[in-house]
Amino acid sequence: MTPATPPSVPLDTLVTERMDGIGPMLDALPTADLVHLMNDGDAAVAAAVRQQASAIAAVVDALAARMASGGRLVYAGAGTSGRLGVLDASEIPPTFGAPPGRVVGLIAGGTRALTDAVEAAEDDPELGRSDIEALGAGALDTVVGIASSGRTPYVLGAVRRAAELGCLTVGLSCNADAPLSAAVDLPLEVVVGEEIVRGSTRLRAGTATKMVLNMLSTLAMVRLGKTYGSLMVDVQATNDKLRHRAVRIVTTATGTDESSARRVLEAAGWHAKTAVAMIALDSDADTARAALAAASDRLGIVLEGR
Predict the structure, then answer these.
(1) Catalytic residue among 122, 189, 194, 195
(2) In the annotation, is 304 catalytic?
(3) CB pairs under 8 A, 24+ apart, for 97-101?
(4) Which domains does the chain have, with CATH numbers?
(5) I need a labelling partner for 247 at 20 to 30 A (CA). Which of 25, 139, 161, 294 fits?
């Protein structure tokens, strides 16, 4: 098993492990000062993400192109990084109507690691390799390795095996010149600086990771036609809140009244995109679905050509 901390790379060389000069005095500060201190640190995270904007855009375009051909987005991480990947993956089907399994979150230690620390699992690169193999990963898939340190053995094993299988590989870390960056096709290094609690990368690094994953998955879905304007027209209306949202989507997109929108949504199986197309084309659900299929499921194309 590969050690978690290679002796040739001291912890103090990692920005996420350095002391910010405040740590030893935290317990002596008033609570209000502590709140401001954390908030000031968090305020710098968005700027660090922005510095990677061009690189993030390149990942989104490459990812969306592969997903348009049937590929998957796969996250691989350990600890907080893994949990954030699983969280992001779990929210894509209900928000954008993507089929289950289209976005996958792998975490070192498996599902138990979502609620319980399975710390030693991250030290095993072979576990990362085997998790990628178990997915049957291939050339259309994009594997995003997530590791704040940029050197987690599980993540390195996952992206290296993914590369061998022909996947597009992406590395998301919060340290510069990370080993993960050298192991992938497209590196993203969001250097957020020292954590208020030394080495606790669930803080600034975790916030930065969540922001970047939001961008990757959401913007890929936008590129795939899963939105119309800012409307989530492929939302799965599986409860009262989401059915009300579907009604608002249809009324906003078409200008029809709520009663009519609800009636058409019921005929469309509560699929907002189909309902909007039905109203725009003055058609039944099957005709609307056929029109969407001919337009690569892009509602904007259907509305422009009506």
Answers:
(1) 122
(2) no
(3) 97/226, 97/234, 97/235, 97/236, 97/271, 97/273, 98/221, 98/226, 98/234, 101/72
(4) 11-223 (3.40.50.10490), 240-304 (1.10.8.1080)
(5) 294
